[in-house]
Amino acid sequence: MELNERKMKILQAIVRNYLETGEPVGSRTISKYTDLNLSSATIRNEMADLEEMGYIVQPHTSAGRIPTDLGYRIYVDTMMQEKEREVEELKGTLLEKEERLDQLLKQTAKLLATNTNYASMVSAPSIHQNKLKLIQLSRVNDEQLLAVIVIEGNVIKNTLLNVSEKINEETVLKLNILLNTHLTGLSIEEINLKLISSLKAQAGIHSDIVSDVIDAVAKAIHEEDDLEIYTSGTNNIFKYPELADSSAASELIGAFEEKQALNELVVRTLAESEETGIQVYIGNESPVSTMKDCSIVTATYDLGEGMKGTIGIIGPKRMDYEKVVDNLKDVMRQLDSIYKK
Amino acid sequence: MELNERKMKILQAIVRNYLETGEPVGSRTISKYTDLNLSSATIRNEMADLEEMGYIVQPHTSAGRIPTDLGYRIYVDTMMQEKEREVEELKGTLLEKEERLDQLLKQTAKLLATNTNYASMVSAPSIHQNKLKLIQLSRVNDEQLLAVIVIEGNVIKNTLLNVSEKINEETVLKLNILLNTHLTGLSIEEINLKLISSLKAQAGIHSDIVSDVIDAVAKAIHEEDDLEIYTSGTNNIFKYPELADSSAASELIGAFEEKQALNELVVRTLAESEETGIQVYIGNESPVSTMKDCSIVTATYDLGEGMKGTIGIIGPKRMDYEKVVDNLKDVMRQLDSIYKK
DNA sequence: TGTTAGCACTCATTACTTTCGAGTGCTAAC
DNA sequence: GTTAGCACTCGAAAGTAATGAGTGCTAACA
Question: What number of CA atoms fall less than 13 Å from residue B200's CA on the CB side?
Fold first, then answer.
C-alpha cells in the first residue's frame, strides 16, 4: 500500500491534533477540521489503512487513533513545517554573557526548560583532544605547593601538592621553567613515559614533584571525562499525564539525578552529530531505556577550539517538535554569538 | 489534663505503629501489641484524651488515629530511643577519602539517600570569614594573565585577566610580590579602599591589573556566597504515597532542583546550629513552605578552619527518625575522621 | 470505483448503589 | 477505674447501569 498524499494529510492531521490534545483522535474530528472535505466514513477507511501500515494505533477498540513511534517519525522527517516564529518573542529571553561557563550553561538549561515546558539538559563541553597551555607551580607554604594547569579552551584546574622536603622560591621557579618548556603545547597523548622520565632526570632531587604534577595533569583530564551535566525543569514532566504517574516519573527523575543515563545520551549525540545539526529520538529510538516513553531532541554546540557539548530537551512523545527545534536552534545561535566574538 | 506515663506509652505506641505502617492505628491494635494489658475500650478513652490534648487526630470519624505535628514533636523530643545499631552494618558504607571536596560531598549525599531511602542534601561549606592565603599571577601569553586565588581552607579560584599592555615575566614577578606581601593573611573585610589605592599607587602603570585582581578576589568570595548544594535520592519521595501524588511531588522536586529553598534551609540550620548538633523540623515547622508535608532532619558539619556546611534528610513526616539521626551522626563522624587527620 | 449514510457493536468512563468492616463513642455492669 | 457490648459512622471496594465517543461493515449512490 502506498502512502499517498491524502493519507499523508490525514496522518499529519492526526499527529497535529494529538500533539495538541493528548487524546486519541477520531475520524469525525479529522473530517471536520481538515480541508479535505471527506466524510468521517472515508476517513475511517483511510485510518484503517494507516493502522495497517503501522503509523497509528487504537489504544483500545472504539477509541480514536494515536500515532505510533513510526507515525511520529514520518511526521518529524517529512511533515513538520518550519514555524516562522516572531524574532521579537525570543529577544526577551536572551542569554547573558557570563564569565563563568558553568553559569552560562546552567542559564541555558533553565531558559530552555521554561521556554518549552519540557525538561532540559546541557552538558559541559568535553575537551578531550586539547593541548596544555600552561603549568604554574607556586609555593603556598613549606609543605604545600599549588599546581595550576591551564588547558586550551581556558579550562583551568588546580591541585594542592604536599611536598616532603622543604622547597624554596628559586626551586619552584626552576621547576616552572622546566615543566613549561617541555610540556606546553603538547596534547595529553603526547606526554609519554619517555618524556616523563627525561623530565624527572632533569629535575634531580625534585623528581617526586614532577611525578606529582604529571599525575595532576592526568587527573585534570580524567576529571573532565565524567563530564558535568546541568539539568533544569525536571518537574515539567508532571505537566504531561502520560509521564506523571509515579512509577514513570520516579524512573525519569532518577535518571536525571544520576546523570549516568544523560551521559550516554551526550556520548551518543556527539558521535552521531557529524551529519545533522539536530537529532530527534522518538520513544524506543532513545539511547536511554528509561526514556522509552519520551522523545528527546538534541543538538551539538561548538564553542570552537574543540569544545563541543550537547543540549537536549526531554518531553513526552507528543511534544511540540517544531517549537523545541526552534528553541534549540535559537540557543545555539546565541551561544555562538557569545563565544565567537 | 496531664500527660501521665500511661498516656505517654500509648502515644508512643501510636507513633511507632504509624511510622511503620502509614495507616491510622486503632485502639484494638494498641491493646494487643503493648504490654499495658488494657482493653481496647480503655485505650479508646485514653485516645480520646490524647486527641483533646492535640497529640493525635482522626483523619475521619470511624478511623484510627494518626499523630499530629505536635505528637511527632513529643515523640522526637522525649520518647525516641537511641537505637543500638551494629557498627558492622555501617562499616560497609564508609565514605572514601577524595581529594576533591565536591566529590566527597556528592558521595555523602548519595550514601545518605541510599541508606535511609529518603531524599538528601549536602551543602558545600561556606567560607565567609576566611583569609587570603595566596595570590599568584602568571603570564599565559601576551594578552592574558592567569590569577589564582587561594583562600584559607584551600579553596582555590582562578580567573583569566585580559590585559591591554604587553607585560613581561619580570613585571609579573614584581606584581606577585607586591600583592602577596600586602594582602596575604588578610580577611576579605580587611581589604579596604585605602589599602587598594595604596597598592595601585605602588603598582604605577600597572594599576589596572591590580584593580582587576582585586575584583577577582571579591568575585571569588562572592561566588562562594551562592553556595553549592548537592542532592541525592530525590526520587525516593515516590516511595511514600503521601508525597507521591503528582502535585506534591512536582513541588518538592522543583524545590530540590531550584535549590533556592534548600539554601534557605541551610542558612536557617547554620544559624540555629549553635545549640544542638541535630535539628528536626516537623511539617509546618519547616523553614520551607513547599515542605509542609515533610519532615526535615539537619546537621551541621565542621571541617575546621571555619568551613561549616549542612547535611539534611527530607522525607515524609512518618520517617524513621532514629535511623535518620543515627545515619547523620555516623556521616558526621566519618567526615570528621577524614578531615581532621 | 470511490464516497457516503446508516446501523450495530465495543468499551472506557462516570455515576450510583450496595456491601463490608474497621473503628468509634457511649452505656451499663463489674 | 476497667471492661464488655452495642449502635453507629464512614471510607473503601465491588457491583451495576447509563452514557457516549468511536469503530467496522454493509448497502446505496454518483
Answer: 15
With cell 523553614, the residue in question is B287
- Residue B40: which nucleotide is closest by CA–C1'? D3
Among chain A residues, CA nearest to B255: A235
The CA distance from A56 to A51, in Å, is: 5
Would you give per-residue pLDDT tens digits along chain B (341 residues)? Answer: 889 999 999 999 999 999 999 999 999 999 998 888 999 999 999 999 999 999 999 999 889 999 999 999 999 999 887 665 554 455 456 666 666 778 889 999 999 999 999 999 999 887 655 678 888 888 877 878 888 888 776 677 778 888 888 888 888 888 888 888 998 888 777 888 888 889 888 888 888 888 888 888 877 766 655 678 999 999 999 999 889 988 889 999 999 998 889 999 998 998 887 766 899 999 999 999 999 999 999 999 988 767 788 999 999 999 999 999 999 999 988 888 887 65
How many other CB atoms are there within 10 angstroms of residue B252's CB atom? Answer: 23
CA atoms in the 13 A half-sphere facing the CB of B49: 15
| Integer angstrom CA distances of residue A184 from A15, A136, A146, A191, A208 | 56, 11, 18, 10, 20
How far is C-alpha A183 from the chain's CA centre? 32
Q: Does A120 touch chain B (CB under 8 A)?
A: no
Residues 152-181 of B with CB under 8 A from A: 154, 156, 158-160
Q: How does DSSP assign B286-320, residue by residue?
A: SSSGGGTTEEEEEEEEE-STT-EEEEEEEEETT--
- Chain B contact set for A223 (CB, 8 A): 100
Nucleotide minimizing C1' to CA distance for residue B63:
C23
CB A265 within 8 A of CB A296: yes
The residues near A267 (Cβ < 8 Å, ≥ 6 apart) are none
Instruction: Give A202-217 pLDDT, tens digit per residue.
Output: 888 888 888 888 888 7
Is B184 within 8 Å of chain A by CB? no
Exposed/middle/buried for B165, CB within 10 Å: 0-12, 13-18, 19+?
exposed
Name residues whose C-beta falls within 8 Å of residue B217's C-beta, 6 or more positions apart in sequence.
B132, B135, B149, B183, B188, B191
Per the listing, cell 554569538 goes with A337
Q: Are A149 and A132 in contact (CB under 8 A)?
A: yes
Cβ-Cβ contacts under 8 Å for A249 (sequence gap 6 or more): A237, A238, A243, B235, B238, B246, B249
